[in-house]
Amino acid sequence: MVLESADNRQQCDGQRPSCQRCVEKDLICAYDVDPGVSHFTSLRQQHDALATEVNQLHGLIEYIRTRSDVDACETLQRIRASQGLLDIARSLGVTSGPFSKRDYQHVMLVRD
Fold it and tell me: Any idea what the Cα angle at residue 18 is, between residues 17 and 20, rounded to 5°?
């Protein structure tokens, strides 16, 4: 957690239930990660979950692209009926798209 003030930025020391800065300033600590999980680990977990979701959606697109017109139209009708895209992908057995987790990690390294 990073706490900001008008004149400086101080990083939380992560102590629980209250970090040193909050104790000194008589503030209430608010953590956005579970105890024992670092902020970086939390971000990595979120990234991995989103990469999995994107991969499933790519897989759904590939499924529609490669199936018969009847199957593709049926899938599009399910999408238009507002059934969740990931639920549709799972029900069709689509677990991944053309990219691996490593591909997404490479993209992250290139962007950094």
Answer: 145
